[in-house]
Amino acid sequence: MNAIALQALTILVLMVGFQPARATDVSRAENLFRAKCAACHSIACNRNGPKLEGVFGRRAGSVADYKNYTEELKNSGIVWSDDTLDAFIRDPGKLVPGTSMTAAGQIEGAKDRRDIVRHIRRQDKRSDLCL
Ligand code: HEC
Questions:
Q1: In this predicted model, which residue has the larger pLDDT, 120 or 25?
Q2: 17-47: pLDDT as tens digits
Q3: Could you identify the atom of ligand 1 that is nearest to the CA of residue 116?
Q4: CB of 38 closer than 6 angstroms to any ligand 1 atom
Q5: Among candidates 103, 107, 130, which has minimal Cα distance to 29?
Q6: Is 75 helix (H, G, I), strand (E, B) or coil?
Q7: N or C: which end of the chain has fewer CB within 10 A?
């Protein structure tokens, strides 16, 4: 087998090998979001909790048409990023004492938190979804 054929074969094997893993991660993240967040949140619609559309780079408590924020969250000075989202869902009441987002939104596993945050970022790009 010549070098180019070998390279092509390697690339093919890598593509086939990695595809299912990525698909599994995506659905794992989606399932986590559904199980842990979707009861109160969607991307595009306010529910019990505020919509998460455009959350990255946005100040906490700033969705204009969501009326149920606590003063504590609005005054927290937090800007949402991968890190602040991770800290919030790790322990909402620790990052923002007095928040009305309860322990129901608390995620213990670091990988679970990372997957959920990535999922929100992915969904945000298709922000017409009311999950
Ligand atoms: C039991 C309902 C509930 C669950 C479950 C829940 N949340 Fe919340 N969430 C809320 C409420 C209510 C607020 C508003 C809190 C406040 O104003 O103090 C909120 C606020 C937030 C905010 C701040 C948004 C903003 O506009 O500043 C983010 C981000 C967030 N939640 C993400 C999540 C994620 C991610 C999950 C899943 C891991 C989750 N929440 C699970 C009810 C929930």
A1: 120
A2: 555 556 667 889 999 999 999 999 999 999 9
A3: 35
A4: no
A5: 107
A6: coil
A7: N
* Helix, strand, or coil (residue 59): strand
The residue contributing the CA closest to ligand 1 atom 34 is 37
49 phi and psi angles, rounded to 5 deg: -105, 165
- In the numeric block, the tokens 């949402």 are attached to 80
Q: How far is CA 25 from CA 36, 37, 106, 122, 125, in A?
A: 16, 17, 20, 12, 18
Q: Is the pTM of this model over 0.70?
A: yes
Which atom of ligand 1 lies nearest, measured to the CA of 69?
Answer: 17
Tokens of 82: 């991968």
What are the structure tokens assigned to 78, written together? 């937090």
pLDDT given for residue 92 in this prediction? 98
